[in-house]
Amino acid sequence: MVDFVIIGGGIIGLSTAMALGRRFPKASLLVLEKENAWATHQTGHNSGVIHSGIYYKPGSFKARFARTGSQSLVAFCREQGIPCEICGKVIVATAPQELPRLDALHERGLANGLEVARIGPEELKEIEPHVHGLAAIQVSSTGIVNYRQVAEVYARIVREQGGDLRLGTWVLRLRSDGSNTVLETSRGEFTARFVVNCAGLHSDRIARLSGVQTNARIVPFRGEYYELTPEKRFLVKHLIYPVPNPDFPFLGVHFTRMIDGTVHAGPNAVLGGKREGYRKIDFDPRDLAEVMAYPAFWKLARKNLGEGAKEVIRSWSKAAFLRSLQRLIPEVRAGDIVPTHAGVRAQALMNDGTLMDDFLLVPGPNSLHVCNAPSPGATASLEIGRYVAERVPPPLSRP
Q1: 79: which residues sit within 8 A by CB, 6+ positions away?
Q2: Where are the beta strands (DSSP E) in 251-381?
Q3: Span 1-84+143-215+357-399: which CATH code?
Q4: What interhelical angle do 11-23 and 147-160 show, nearest 10?
Q5: Over the stretch 72-94, which tens digit does the pLDDT of each residue have?
Q6: Cα distances (Å, whole numbers) of residue 29 to 2, 194, 202, 207
Q7: Contact predicate 207/360, CB 8 Å
Q8: What is the pLDDT, as a whole number, of residue 249?
Q9: How many CA atoms lie less than 13 Å away from 372 in the CB half-sphere?
């Protein structure tokens, strides 16, 4: 019998385990991760950005947790000796029709309590000499870090707290045993008084195994990146983003200086043929069939047909991808970028055809399910972990 079982060893699952260990130091805790290493999916494939929270609706979980999470994460990294840098970013309008959206985004940043400044082309050139733009927002609190390294430190702390961490352990079935839950796994059965589902790309499936209705399904969106060649890294000093299209749920291709000094460009956003598919050819019949049979997906597709088509073209055409980058930095040429890693975003699509634009936490019998925690989930990981831990009841055996 274990007091708490956390399903999923990504940055959210490990942060939640760490927070539970601190809240209930005498409780028994088990983390189950199906891979043979921590943070191998969303956490290990993201852009490494410490987000400020400028994009998110004021008062939402994302806005609150990104703002406070960026501060607590940086403090944690400095305390633990994890390299991080607060480099700042610019969000750039490159066409007149983007200026009203830039102004609205500036107002949102102010409403979210951020230090943001609207700047003109001359100031933009001082910050990013190679960027073309009519105006921009400077966001000073944005930073960069290696989130896989952060997650590994979370895991170490959980272990030091006395937590039991199991890699290579698949959760196959869940069943109720009175007031407890029995988890059937690839490494035997475990009985838990309380289960926290942080399974990321499979969180909706784990919720269904628990008999919990989330009114959503995870749809995988693959994001592909290019990398600037070493001799062209000088073109990017900080982080450079376009003004996002408010009718499309992604931020557009952008330039990110990584903590290791490389510069990545991307991502686009295309439907993945597999929940853990990082290559164009990756395909899983079950994963794709679930999406195709989900009426909400077709509602979303019809609404975003034009933008979706552009993303697909960018996926298959380096020239099209390059043109998107040249809107921000006209000097970039085809020979300056080479393909690099891709990531898959676990995006919850609601039954009504809308993409869940906030973190989604769904309670169940003796369980809590984190069913939507994409970007800025890594930035907000400490805050999400604390929030979840505060909503977990104390172990009955140790009041």
Answers
A1: none
A2: 254-257, 263-266, 270-271, 337-350, 360-364, 367-372
A3: 3.50.50.60
A4: 30
A5: 999 999 999 999 999 999 999 99
A6: 6, 10, 21, 20
A7: no
A8: 64
A9: 19
